[in-house]
């Protein structure tokens, strides 16, 4: 039986894909540049020009590609980073908002315009709780935050 196909998001940049690939590799521990494609002889771009690359990241891949004729990043497509603790949220938030901007409810835009969601992995459990009062308190707390504060979310969820 052949190995399963992979599915990976591709982010299409105008010309910043190589810099973004290196930046993302530096932000996420254990991330590695898995491949790089550069233009060869006789192509439409000068030899050696970065075309695309893949980042191996926590068992997933993210592809970056140059050549977008218009910047087209929006909130309709984002990358979610589920964090185990506040230290991870703080680390990723600081790195990715440097040169970017904060958005409400754990969303941010990085310096390339890519939209990210930096969320505690416990948030889904809180919001999906079968007790509607708990879920509503967690949602209400979440709606007041830009960067998530796990302790504050947990206190709201618990009704404290």
In short:
This protein is α/β, with parallel strands linked by helices and 160 residues long. It is built from 5 helices and 8 strands, in the order βαββββαβββααα.
Q: What does this molecule look like?
A:
The chain has helices at residues 17-27, 86-97, 123-127, 132-142, 150-158, and strands spanning 10-13, 32-38, 50-57, 60-66, 79-83, 101-102, 107-109, 115-120. The chain has 160 residues and is α/β, with parallel strands linked by helices. The chain folds into two domains: 7-71, Signal recognition particle alu RNA binding heterodimer, srp9/1, CATH 3.30.720; 73-160, 2,3-Dihydroxybiphenyl 1,2-Dioxygenase, domain 1 (Roll), CATH 3.10.180. The strands form two sheets. Strands 1-4-3-2 form a four-stranded mixed β-sheet, with helices on one face. It has a four-stranded mixed β-sheet with strand order 5-8-7-6, with helices on one face. Helix 4 packs antiparallel against helix 5. The longest helix is centred in the middle third of the chain and has 12 residues, at 86-97. The protein is elongated, with a radius of gyration of 19 Å.
